[in-house]
Write a structure and sequence with these properties.
The chain has helices at residues 26-43, 69-72, 92-117, 119-142, 151-171, 193-196, and strands spanning 183-190, 205-211, 216-222, 228-237, 244-259, 263-269, 274-282, 286-291, 296-301. It is of the alpha+beta class. It has an eight-stranded antiparallel barrel. Helix 1 (26-43) runs antiparallel to helix 3 (92-117) and helix 4 (119-142) packs antiparallel against helix 5 (151-171). The protein is globular.
Amino acid sequence: APISPTTHAPARSTRCPPPPRRATMPRLRCLATAACLCVMSTTHTHALPPSRTRPRASGATRWQPRRSRACMMAGPGGGASAGGPSAGPATPAALEGLMGAFDGLVKGAFDSLSMGGGGGGGGAAAAKLDATKQALLDACDATARGTLSSDAALAEIEVLIDELAELNAKAARDTGSSPDLTGKWTLMFTTEQELLGLMGNPLTVVYQTLDIENGKLGNGVEWSNGVTFTVDSTLSSDAEVDVRSNFVFKSAALTVPDIPILGTRTLTLPPIGKGWFDNVYLDRDLRLNRDLRGNTVVYQRVVELEGGGWL
């Protein structure tokens, strides 16, 4: 004869109260809902609806409530299960481990949001980043690219660079081989004494051109009288330091235009040396370098105009 359904306590709802409706919350909402479902299915027994009650043959296993897949894998006492639901509710140790894992997920979600994962947190982080970059460019401009810098100005610039370098490190970007390096960059600040001695005139242009795909690095100085000095090098990423770029000098040339009688003449110089620089911060319009001699250099991307020319 059919066995009457066993009386159970009323099933408790597995739905969590919805969190505040904010643009930054969808990821946290999913995490919280999944954790609550898992905890409740582990600790509470659900009644089998009468419509699903079937006769049970003699010796048949008593029906067990269905549990979520995540909790099924926990098994008795929180350990790994070979398959199928466990025979009893989770132990306090298992629940403590589960909630600890959930706390870690929530913390990770908040960290992601603080780094620009979305919503208001991302907007605040982006605004802070833009403000720091602008403060750095203003500080560089006040030193006339480093030619008029004081100890206090140098300290301020280094602090701002450290802040941006920390953001780059958190993002774990491989800036030594990033395609964003490719392009033309104008120098905004340097502590390199050789360059500082060449650019006392504010009209002097100092730039770099990088081509990551073809492994090329070019350095150039253009004076207002038309004289130019260029150095060509090979460029490669470093196998051990992911923010580092290695270079080897290939050729150098000094070009002097409009020499009386002679016209334009180019003097080729022998290339000597090699080195490296770390791209401690890099984005689409700003690049911050520190090199093997301890120099700090700030570059800003030059925009190529349609139809030729640079801005």
